[in-house]
Amino acid sequence: MANAGCGSLATILFLFFFQAALHKGAAQYPVVSQNLVTDNVSVVEGETAIISCRVKNNDDSVIQLLNPNRQTIYFKDLRPLKDARFQLVNFSDNELRVSLSNVSLSDEGRYVCQLYTDPPQEAYADITVLIPPGNPIIEARDEVLSEGNETEMTCIAMSSKPAATIRWMKGDKELPGKPKVELTYDKMYTVTSRLTLTVNKEDDGVPVICIVDHPAVKDFQAQKYLEVQYKPEVKIVVEFPQGLTREGENLELTCQAKGKPQPQRVNWVKVDDDVPSHAVITGGDLYIENLNKSYNGTYRCVASNSVGESFDDYILYVYDPAPSTEPAAHDSRAGEGAPRTVDHAVIGGVVAVVVFAMLCLLIVLGRYFARHKGTYFTHEAKGADDAADADTAIINAEGGHTNSDEKKEYYI
């Protein structure tokens, strides 16, 4: 130990007298600028910092490195300071490079590169110690949300140097937060950011991410998945028929309902009327056999959960039975127009007019033939009345026009 103490004292005395000799000799010779340069250093706590003192056009002047308290760390390639964390990396006429391992916050400050010229030259290297924040923490005001509601989240990045910055992302969209920076008793910074947002059903299962930006760390983040409840989404699907709904056919509808929580109740109703008595309802399925036009109307599927209620409508229009040639398929869902079949009332009217005309014609013809037939028998009887005896009457009845003609000639 005595030898070590003597060695240190000898080194200090050597430095003192050497510096005095340099100053004395420097006054006798002109000075050429050596351009002493160095660089500022940022280092994460616990890692290693490199300090470099560089000289251009050196004339064999001595380089030394001092700590913020102006204690000599290295004089040329000698290390008077008893701190084994400082190690010589390179020494030459143009550079003195020193490493400082396991850097702590107490090592932060201004280090001095000094070149023994007249006057002495100095350059400064500021060492900044970076302290990363702790793991970010997300706190949510509400664990479960309903669509349309507003919520608030908080992200905290504690004990960093310098202060961290916080960004928010919802899925792939960046959202603005409200940051607050606090300086703690140990000269560290705690940053708190608050995010306010309104959620909808599309946000269910989407991550909200708190991203912490700091020069000491990369990709530092925390996330929380949104749980959003929403009222059911309802859709009616026509299972049968695929085309027109006609008299005598069957109808099958399925009500598809999706929500969070899953709908527990699915009901079928007929708007402004009752569902046909023989309709079969099984869960979300509605089945009606042997359709007729009295079943026309709007059928509604209603689904509900703890968040709310939704519905979908199906407008039923029952067409006449299918003709021999089926027209193009036609969907009878809500909003479809009136039927495209031919108006049977018009056809019936035309047929009635034709039948009536034929009946009138038959009556006229019947009366005409009846009139001519009566005249024939009258003339026949008249011939018999004019006969003098039975034989003559028979001859006249068989067409004896001669007597008539003779009578006509006689009277003329």
What does this structure look like?
- The chain has helices spanning 2-26, 344-386, 390-397, 401-411, and strands spanning 36-37, 41-44, 49-55, 63-66, 72-75, 86-91, 95-100, 109-115, 121-130, 137-140, 145-146, 150-160, 165-170, 173-175, 178-183, 189-198, 207-214, 217-225, 228-240, 251-260, 265-270, 280-282, 285-288, 297-304, 309-316.
- With 412 residues, it is of the alpha+beta class.
- Strands 2-9-8-4-5 form a five-stranded mixed β-sheet, with no helix packed on it. Strands 11-19-20-23-22 form a five-stranded mixed β-sheet, with no helix packed on it.
- α2 (344-386) packs antiparallel against α3.
Entry summary:
The chain is an alpha+beta fold and 412 residues long. The chain contains 4 helices and 25 strands.
